[in-house]
Amino acid sequence: MSSCAGGRVGVECTRRLMVVAGTCHFVRAAEQLHTTQPALSQAIRQLAAELSVSLFARTTRQVSLTPAGSSFSRRRGESWACLSLSPA
């Protein structure tokens, strides 16, 4: 799994964020992304650190988007939709 750190948020970082946001479950998201939960958690932590925001509120039983995470995923989702609809 490539890092989301490095000064820019790419397609892979966006995909990880969107899957976690959609499932609200890191283990299920990791399964969908064909990776491990620790690797996914680390990538999300790196992305959050790069953006200087907390993207998810996590407890041992619950994952939810923070207001910043919700805003970021909404904007990224709009961008993602544009990429999916653009002609080849």
How would you characterize the overall build of this protein?
- The chain has 88 residues and is mostly helical.
- It is built from four helices and two strands.
- The chain has helices spanning 11-23, 26-33, 37-51, 67-85, and strands at residues 56-58, 63-65.
- A two-stranded antiparallel ribbon has the order 1-2.
- A hairpin with a 4-residue loop joins β1 and β2 (63-65).
What is the topological layout?
Elements: H1 11-23, H2 26-33, H3 37-51, E1 56-58, E2 63-65, H4 67-85
Helix-residue proportion? 55-70%
**What overall geometry do the principal axes of the alpha carbons give?**
globular
Reading side by side through the largest sheet, how are the strands ordered?
1-2
Mean pLDDT: 81
Strand content: 5-15%
User: What summary fits the major beta sheet?
Assistant: 2 strands, antiparallel
For the secondary structure, the number of strands is: 2
Number of helices: 4
| Cα-to-Cα separation, first versus last residue | 26 Å
SSE series? HHHEEH
SSE class: mainly alpha
As residue ranges, the low-confidence spans are none
Radius of gyration: 13 Å
